[in-house]
Structures are given as C-alpha cells and as structure tokens.
Amino acid sequence: MSGTPSTSVIITYHNEVAYIRETIESALAQTVPVELIVVDDGSDERIDGLIESFSVPIQYLVQANSGPAAARNTGLSAARGDFIAFLDADDLWPPERSARLQAALADSPSGGIAMGYVQQFHSPELSTEERRRYYCPPDPMRGGMLTASLIRRESIEQVGVFATDMRLQQDMDWLARAREQGIETVTIPDVVTMRRIHGQNYSLQMERLRYVRSAREALKRQREAKDE
After folding, report:
1. What is the spatial distance between Cα 149 and Cα 122, in angstroms, rounded to a whole number?
2. Shortest CA distance to 28 belongs to which of 55, 3, 60, 50?
C-alpha cells in the first residue's frame, strides 16, 4: 500500500490471540491505504512481538480491561483518518472492503455511514459437534452492525464516543444515536465483513447469558402467577 491513509482501522483485542494475526493481515490487505490501530483491552497475553513482526507501522495501545466501548474510544483518540472503521480481533475483511465503502460515500455526499453485508463462518478448528452447536447462517446478512460499517469522521464527531457504561450493545447504541441525529446510512450489496463463529465469541457468550436470564425471569413470572 502507498499513499496517505484515508481510513483509520481500529481493532479491539482482548485475548483473541489465536485469530489476531489473520485479522491484522486482512486489514493490511485492503486495496486502499489504511492506518491501523490495535487497542489491547487488558489481555492476559500481550502481542508486542506480533505487532513488531509486520513491516508496516501499527499503533499498539494497551489499557486496563475496561470493555469494548472504552477500547474503541481509545482507538478514536489516536485515529487520524477521514473515515473510521472498526474490526473485531477475530473477524476478517475482504480486500476490497474499504475501497467499496469509500466509493459508496463518495457517491452519496450526504451519507455519513456506509454499510454492507456480513458473512458468518465457522472457524476451521471447530469440531463437527461444535459446528452443529453454534449456528452459522449460510447466507450473507445485511450488516446493521458497526463492524460492517465505514463512518465519516464528521459523523463520529457529531454523534460522540461510545457509552462506556454499556458492556453489551454499545455499537447498536451508537448507531441508534446516529439515526436519531439524522445521519444517513448508505448500504451496498457487497459482503464487507466475515464474522468468525468459534464459541468463545463475546457476543455469543452474552447471548447465552441473556437467554438464561430471560428464562429465569419467565419462570419467576410463572411462579408468581400461580401464587396469585
């Protein structure tokens, strides 16, 4: 890659050591220049050596574990690009991702966010049993999520930083605030993010916890109804 990076890519990392190299490589394989920032959110295993093994400069920022929202805010404080993109440390991007989303915003000057589709995939190391256990939609899904987006810097500045009091759904909260402020989203039909399903995904773990909590609340309501 050559030229001035127009997109700042913020990768938030927390113990995804098995996948982070491939994730970084996919970000660096973009067909347009990018500025890469890796924010280590208090991982047990630091990756200084891995970062230094790449031939291009990568900002590696380390903070005490404070959650994904705080990590993204740390990355934003260091970002210099005209566009901002977020990539989870276990996911991947196709090489044309940044170029296509930039082109979508260039074609729509009023757009503040460009968004594409997400293709989910089972991580290769999963066993047959694990593949059955963790559902993976076969078809691409319309993004609707931060990691499938490219955002103009002005839109970031307008909406503000991520809510650090939200461990879950802080990305959906940010996108909701963007909609409330009238920021236009442009959607393209291309797959722009490959989301890895591996059973340790933070979101999957939290979805299971939410299910357990919902089940407990439902059971509690049923017991209370019987006692009335």
Report:
1. 22
2. 55
Q: Rounded to whole angstroms, how far apart are CA atoms 63 and 51?
A: 16
Give 108-146 pLDDT, tens digit per residue. Answer: 999 999 999 999 999 999 999 988 888 889 999 998 889
Q: Where are the domains of the chain?
A: 7-197
Give whole-number Cα distances, 80 to 76, 104, 181, 216, in Å. 8, 21, 23, 46
Which contiguous run of DSSP H or E holds residue 158?
helix 153-159
Give the model confidence (pLDDT) of 169-188 as tens digits.
788 899 999 999 999 999 99
Topology of the domain covering 7-197? Spore Coat Polysaccharide Biosynthesis Protein SpsA; Chain A (3.90.550)
Please provide the DSSP assignment of 89-138 as one string.
TT-B--TTHHHHHHHHHHT-TTEEEEEEEEEEEE-TT--HHHHHHS---S
Query: Are 89 and 19 contacting, i.e. CB atoms less than 8 angstroms apart?
Result: yes
92 DSSP 8-state letter: B
The number of C-alpha atoms within 13 Å of 92 and in the hemisphere containing its C-beta is 16
Please state, in angstroms and rounded to a whole number, the distance separating the CA atoms of residues 224 and 96. 55
Distance of alpha carbon 92 from the chain centroid: 10
**Both tokens of residue 223?**
């017991």
pTM of the model: 0.85
User: What is the rounded distance in angstroms from the CA atom of residue 131 to the CA atom of residue 46?
Assistant: 29
- Is residue 193 within 8 A of residue 118, CB to CB? The reply is yes
- Which amino acid is located at 55 in the chain? S
Query: What is residue 148's DSSP assignment?
Result: G
